[in-house]
Amino acid sequence: MSRSVLVTGGNRGIGLAIARAFADAGDKVAITYRSGEPPEGFLAVKCDITDTEQVEQAYKEIEAEHGPVEVLIANAGVTKDQLLMRMSEEDFTSVLDTNLTGTFRVVKRANRGMLRARKGRVVLISSVVGLYGGPGQANYAASKAGLVGFARSLARELGSRNITFNVVAPGFVDTDMTKVLSDEQREGIVKQVPLGRYAQPEEVAATVRFLASDDASYITGAVIPVDGGLGMGH
Ligand code: NDP
């Protein structure tokens, strides 16, 4: 059955791999992008998730083309790494506003249709750093840890409506986000990963698609690591 799927930040990186995985399985996939040319093969809607009006407009466009969103993948996210002493309040609040409050905005709007349909699947993209911590990433880690409490609260609040909320916590993945790291930093990270390498975006996408599938019908409030073993026990 073809479902209406929305992947925020589906224009590149992990989000694009997720969008492709759903499209390959026959779903109707919408993606958000902020600028430039979005990739072909999806319903691309312009949307900055820090802006409630743009979120509302994006949902209206998607609903007109694909119907209410049945599967939401809240993937859009940013980093602004900085040591605490040098981290400005803006560095902190802007990361929270995208990663955590932005996710709140898109989830809240999706929930309207899901409540009406009495079913829905929501997957939030967190990070191993959310529970493991990362020096220079206090803002990012706080936002990603926040997603866990957010998802688990909603899993309890809306479980009786047959809406599941799960979190995927990737480790280090080969995307633009990690391209900024130096070779030295990269080597240091890989040394700590039991599988000894970065993930490819498709390896994250496979887990996301599973959580949105019928096979995951009894899974909610879970945090699934896709991190090569980096965060074991966290
Ligand atoms: P990229 O930097 O490659 O892509 C980030 C995506 O988020 C882009 O599509 C970007 O859109 C979108 N985005 C950022 N800010 C906003 C905003 N305000 N409104 C709408 N869209 C926005 O990152 P990745 O693909 O690597 O990361 C995807 C997710 O996975 C993020 O949440 C990230 O934190 C998480 N993650 C990544 C890991 C990694 O190692 N790469 C590890 C663990 C988690 P645009 O193109 O317009 O900028």
TrEMBL record:
Pfam families: adh_short_C2
Pathway given in the UniProt record: Lipid metabolism; fatty acid biosynthesis
UniProt key word Aminoacyl-tRNA synthetase: no
GO molecular function: 3-oxoacyl-[acyl-carrier-protein] reductase (NADPH) activity
Entry-linked Gene3D superfamilies: NAD(P)-binding Rossmann-like Domain (3.40.50.720)
Keyword Ribonucleoprotein tagged: no
InterPro entries reported in the protein's UniProt record: 3oxo_ACP_reduc, KR_dom, NAD(P)-bd_dom_sf, Sc_DH/Rdtase_CS, SDR_fam
Keywords from the named record: Fatty acid biosynthesis, Fatty acid metabolism, Lipid biosynthesis, Lipid metabolism, NADP, Oxidoreductase
EC number: 1.1.1.100
Catalytic activity: a (3R)-hydroxyacyl-[ACP] + NADP(+) = a 3-oxoacyl-[ACP] + NADPH + H(+)
Segments forming domain Ketoreductase: 3-176
Function, as annotated: Catalyzes the NADPH-dependent reduction of beta-ketoacyl-ACP substrates to beta-hydroxyacyl-ACP products, the first reductive step in the elongation cycle of fatty acid biosynthesis.
Subunit description: Homotetramer.
Family: Belongs to the short-chain dehydrogenases/reductases (SDR) family.
Name of the molecule in the record: 3-oxoacyl-[acyl-carrier-protein] reductase
